[in-house]
Amino acid sequence: IFKFLGAISVDLGKDRIKPYLPTILTPLYRELNSTYAEQDPTLKNLSQEIIELLKKLVGLEAFSLAFSSVQKQASQKRAMRKKQRALQTVANPDIAARRKLKRHKNKAETRKRKLEFLRPAYKAKRPRSHALKDLAMVE
């Protein structure tokens, strides 16, 4: 898709690409700023190349305006999601408690996995299957 976006932007030219610049930059910006563990470096390099191509194509000033608007929009979305999560914690404490328990459980599993990786002789205790306990309501 990134190659397609680059090809379309070159094909449209300087004047016809300007209205679509924020739409094109949104996925490129998201890929550049992603913090996923399994991130593909080729995608990051490709998005950087296309951003450089767009910068040369439309000029620094127009590119900067579009890029800053994309950055602002992304930060607003992030803040809105954070605010909704905080409000959901207050509005639905049972859902928040379940989410917290799940997060703590995952953290403990990660800690055990890291210990096993660092010290292969050490075997962390694995939780037994508590099928009935897992079905119980969280208070």
TrEMBL record:
Q: Which top-level group of life is the source organism from?
A: Eukaryota
Pfam families, per this entry? UTP20_C (PF23099)
Q: Output the InterPro entries linked to this UniProt entry.
A: SSU_processome_comp_20, UTP20_C
Q: Can you name a GO cellular component term?
A: 90S preribosome
| Location of the U3 small nucleolar RNA-associated protein 20 C-terminal domain | 1-115
What is this protein called in UniProt? UTP20 protein
Print the organism lineage.
Answer: Eukaryota, Metazoa, Chordata, Craniata, Vertebrata
